[in-house]
Amino acid sequence: MKKIHIVLLVVLILAFAGVITAGIVLDNSEKAKQKKYFSAEIAGKKYRQKTLTTFLLMGLDKEGYITKTDSYVNDQQCDFVAVLSFDYQKREYTVLQFNRDSMVSIEKLGLKSVRTNDFVIAQIALAHTWGTGLEDSCENARRCVSKLLYNLEIDYYISFTMDAIKEVVNFISNETGIPVTFDKDYTDINPAYTEGNTLYLDGDASMDFVRARLNAEDGTNISRMSRQKLYMNSFLNYIQKTEEENRDVDYTALYKRIHKDSYEESVVFTDCPANVIASLFDDIDDFTMKSMDTPLGEADYSKEYVEFYIDQTSLDNLAIDFYFTEVKD
Question: pLDDT tens, 192-234?
Fold first, then answer.
């Protein structure tokens, strides 16, 4: 089955007022007060959380609009999982993407989405599957990722369906598509995708390129993530060129296009309020990317569904680098 993945990070965050280059959500001093006493112990050392604003991004294995089920489980896997964080002191942002096959601890919700304190080890893609598909599912995924990152405080979540990428790519590029130069041969996806060739991919073509899995390359999620990072860099380069040429993008209009008052008419569901979105408008070009990374690990292909086991040292190093500062005695 084809899935959506990392490119949604770019297009959805850009949809939220150009967040890739923005960031002031709360006054720095106020954020510092909130985080001052937050601490974590990693590999035997004590840390406090940096002054950050964090977003959990979830790409749902679903086309069309956001939907709600009457059950305490839904069929929308949280197929793309990433944490976007803004560091106010250093004026930079990081992107931490998780392999959707990562085996993690997930809380099972009961009837009416009541928390049960009953946990199961499963793919992180299933963290959103418990609940109705709205707030309860997003909150369950947020708790899962927060726990994985030493109780990192995640300020906001943004979930979105696969149609979001089409809307955003076509809007940003004025229907012409994003130029992508292929770093190797991808003719198993499209005969024109030869190494070194540059083509403009519109919303539909972009989706096909970043979602292809079982019939592309070795069919693994790891190879797909590499391809999606190629697209992400292409998208960022396109946005940078757009800014250098002073071609304005009406992010407000884009936001209204993908996010409606009713979730049944939206491809995006979030707890990020309008005033936060507005504050992001004011700080475009104020942050730079520090790093975009993924925890290392080992995949087990012997099971019915692939299981990816995160290397703890790799995760610890990324958590310390991205989110925490060591507390000196």
Answer: 999 999 999 999 998 888 877 655 455 567 777 778 778 878 8
DSSP class per residue in 141-163: HHHHHHHHTTS----EEEEE-TH
Percent over 90 (pLDDT), the chain: 39
Half-sphere exposure of 166 (CA within 13 A, CB side): 12
Enter the DSSP assignment of 99: -
Q: Of 52, 74, 248, nearest to 159 (Cα)?
A: 74
**Which tokens sit at 307?**
């299981």
Are 322 and 86 in contact, with CB atoms under 8 Å apart?
no
User: How many angstroms separate the Cα of 165 from the Cα of each of 162, 266, 268, 270, 310?
Assistant: 6, 13, 11, 16, 28
- List residues bridging with 80 in a β-sheet: 59
Question: How confident is the model over 301-311, as pLDDT tens digits?
Answer: 898 889 999 99
Cα separation of 251 and 226, whole Å?
Answer: 28
Measured distance CA(184)–CA(182) in Å, rounded: 5
**How many residues are given for the chain?**
329
Residues with Cβ within 8 Å of 97's Cβ and at least 6 positions away in sequence, in order, are: 6, 9, 80, 81, 82, 225, 292, 293, 294
Cα-based distances in Å from 137 to 95, 108, 119, 159, 310? 22, 10, 15, 10, 23
User: What's the predicted TM-score (pTM) here?
Assistant: 0.81
Structural domains of the chain sorted by starting position, each given as residue range(s) with its CATH number in brackets: 7-173+248-326 (3.30.420.590)
